[in-house]
Design a protein that fits this description.
- 2 copies of one chain form a homodimer.
- By secondary structure, chain A is of the alpha/beta class.
- Chain A folds into 3 domains: about 45 residues, 434 Repressor (Amino-terminal Domain); about 130 residues, Rossmann fold (3-Layer(aba) Sandwich); about 140 residues, 3-Layer(aba) Sandwich (Rossmann fold), CATH 3.40.50.2300.
- Chain A is built from 14 helices and 12 strands.
- In chain A, β3, α7 and β4 form a beta-alpha-beta unit.
- In chain A, α1 crosses α2 and α8 crosses α9.
- Chain A starts with 15 loop residues before the first helix and ends with a helix.
- Chains A and B meet through α4, α5, β2, α6 and α7 of A and α4, α5, β2, α6 and α7 of B.
- Chain B binds a DNA duplex through α2 and α4.
Chain lengths: ~350, ~350
DNA sequence: TCCCCGTTGTGAAACCTTTCAATCAAGGAT
DNA sequence: ATCCTTGATTGAAAGGTTTCACAACGGGGA
């Protein structure tokens, strides 16, 4: 392949100054064409616009930001960009941001604190107007520090512990509770909770909710089995399925509650392919209701979270914080909802 | 909730100047601490660093960029952030970028040209060092224009038509061909191709490859049925399943080749839930081999693309273009590979 | 004819950083 | 005592934009 002729620019890119020169106007006028077109006569405006087109002028956002002190940009630091739950949340944020004429950058921490920290530092230096984040650790001291240094921040899908920012969550304890109550309704008295690691707050809360409901039903603690996974992935669901199959028959649960749908789908696949029937031999309920849940060959019952709404609410809180001097930090909590499908209903 | 005491900053954020003042050094020295720490004595360095910490100094990236003329940032404009294929590509890009000490911003065009255009304009203004993009339309005149205006660009998963940039692709015709050849091997003589809309280049190419293989096998064109969908989603796969079921029995295919895995999974679910067996009644092969494919209750055969490698290669080409004055544009093409699972093997 | 006002256009200052030539101090060699 | 060298520090310029006080111009009213 041959290198195509490079653009004929003389090293530097055209600036407003160049445009001004070519259009025979002052620098300020060019800026006016850009920002207050009404304050400049039609004829000069034309001239300036033609000059911009001829030169291939592209405004330098760094310079503008430097001058203006704001960037009209939000960023969302996701915990796991490959989990459909988070991409849906991102979609909700994006829609709200678009409506408010803000750009949105997505960053992926991939569950690693170091990567998260690097992203945060960079975003702060970029002077984004606000940061949305689903943090690896919501108690990390960086978060309040960032706010304190002047960049507003909203935590998504975890509760704010520090009082210095808003948060938007779904009630994970309640989610755990309704999942278990549903299984109890179906007559199950021996159930496994599959998920982990325990360092993930969402997992802890869902498990606790499950325990509460279990105890209230008067069932013995020992009949709610805990199977801990190393991650919330399809792969780990598979592994968990094998571990369950290894249990002596009488200890085996008749139903499983998975900490998220990825795990549930992995488990489902393992269970079905090993010849068991779902839900007759084993009922399964997942969490998140990602779009693949309904599409599984045994449609998966799941605890639905309002994913897009979650994102939208978070973005709106941030927008308020940026624009409204009387903003007060809020903790918004959504309510999950059980979607019962074949995997628990026979 | 009460508003927590705002940070005690006096309106403005601390700049190097403030740091310099507090540390009793000149402005240039602070910059040296930041950029060439070796060129400043240990004692002053300490003093400066303490001042930075005390003031909560955060470097202003806009100013730096303005001065330096480069941002050390790439961006990837994705076609569909909710499709696992693209998030995996993004992951590959991210890993390569991280290794080269570049930040990566992700943008989602969501298949809409207008959104894509808005993102591109904004990125150009931000002066990102380079753009990776899976375009809605690879022939859009914006792409060469952006390059011509000085921002290098690499097209991902589509071939470059203009000679002004690199591209990284997977051979979609070959992918279509091997999918069909696999089905022919299994003895199928009546097959449907499901996917659309036809405006998507990937869909066209895969279909053409399929046709070629079909003709070479000497089978009549009419026995390769075309079922066009409105999008490449799980939902649309479902719809397509219903349409197939509506065909008179003798016209019904014994196997289906889907343009991507989302469609295949939707179809699979519809087929299974309507009581047919896979692959006995209907064999299914998908495309992309996303992680949910292996995890489907009938594990899905699929044409695997090297997703992460695709992203990595694209990022590396862009890095070369940015750093190497002798860079020559290249079209890199990867080869897809069939992964046979239960959905075609019984 | 003169004054005032509204409309256009101007030019310099400010935003914050990096760079580079120049200065300064101190110590070693002559 | 003087000169050189080395290493540390300085100060000013540059980078592209927006803003704002101001000038220039023309026209309407008195």
């Amino acid at each position: 392949m041959s290198r195509t002729a490079a653009s004929p620019r003389p090293g530097r890119r055209p600036s407003v100054k160049d445009v001004a020169e070519r259009a025979q106007v002052s620098l300020g006028t060019v800026s006016n064409v850009l920002n207050r077109p009404d304050r400049v006569s039609a004829s000069t405006r034309d001239r300036v616009e033609r000059a911009m087109a001829d030169l291939g002028f592209v405004l330098n956002e760094s310079a503008r930001q430097l001058r203006m002190g704001r960037s009209n940009t939000f960023a969302y630091v996701m915990l796991d960009a490959t989990n459909p739950f988070f991409t849906d949340v991102a979609r909700g944020i994006e829609l709200a941001a678009e409506k408010a004429d803000l750009s949105l950058f997505l960053c992926n921490s991939d569950g690693r604190s170091t990567r998260e920290g690097a992203h945060l530092a960079h975003l702060q230096q970029q002077r984004v107007d606000g940061i949305l984040i689903t943090p690896v650790d919501p108690d990390a001291p960086e978060l309040p520090r960032i706010v304190q240094q002047g960049t507003p921040l909203v935590v998504v899908d975890r509760a704010a512990t520090s009082g210095s920012f808003c948060s938007v969550t779904v009630d994970d304890r309640l989610g755990g509770r309704i999942a278990i109550e549903h299984l109890l309704d179906q007559g199950h008295t021996r159930v496994a909770f599959v998920g982990g690691p325990d360092s993930i707050g969402q997992v802890r809360d869902r498990y606790e909710g499950a325990c509460e409901a279990w105890r209230e039903a008067g069932l013995p603690d020992t009949d709610l089995i805990r199977v801990e996974t190393e991650a919330l992935s399809v792969q780990e669901g598979h592994v968990a399925g094998e571990r369950l199959a290894g249990l002596p028959k009488r200890k085996r649960p008749s139903a499983v509650f998975c900490a998220n749908d990825l795990v549930a789908l992995g488990l489902l696949q393992q269970v079905v392919s090993s010849g068991q029937r779902v839900p007759e031999d084993l009922a399964i309920v997942g969490y998140d209701d990602i779009s693949f849940a309904a599409g599984a060959a045994v449609p998966l019952s799941s605890v639905r979270q309002p994913r897009q709404a979650l994102g939208r609410a978070a973005a709106e809180l941030l927008i308020d914080e940026v624009n409204n001097p009387d903003h007060e930090h809020q903790q918004v909590e959504f309510t999950p909802e059980l979607v019962a499908r074949t995997s628990t209903l026979g």
